[in-house]
Design goal:
4 helices, alpha/beta
Length: 89
């Protein structure tokens, strides 16, 4: 996220106004929640989907998930892949 923000600023790119972040339950999921918060703080509207139930989050993911939810972002949703049945082909 810091690299994306840097690209916007250094290359004078047009700032994106919306973003989408998909997070899993492990530590990389925590990185996704951090990235979403950074982009929100930069002024973007960010929608976040997590694909694991909160009870399965690693300690780091849970910490950053709660930090994100404590902020101004209400666009955080659980995307239950089992219910989507997209893998039934």
């Amino acid at each position: 996220s810091k690299e994306i923000i840097s690209d916007f600023e250094n290359k004078k790119l047009k700032r994106a106004v919306r973003g989408l972040v998909v997070c899993g339950s492990g530590n990389n999921g925590g990185d996704g929640f951090v990235a979403a918060k950074d982009l929100l703080d930069y002024g973007m509207r960010v929608i976040v989907f997590h694909i694991s139930p909160v009870k399965e989050f690693s300690p780091d993911s849970l910490f950053y998930f709660k930090k994100l939810k404590a902020g101004r972002n209400n666009d955080v949703y659980y995307l239950n892949l089992e219910e989507l049945r997209i893998w039934d082909n």
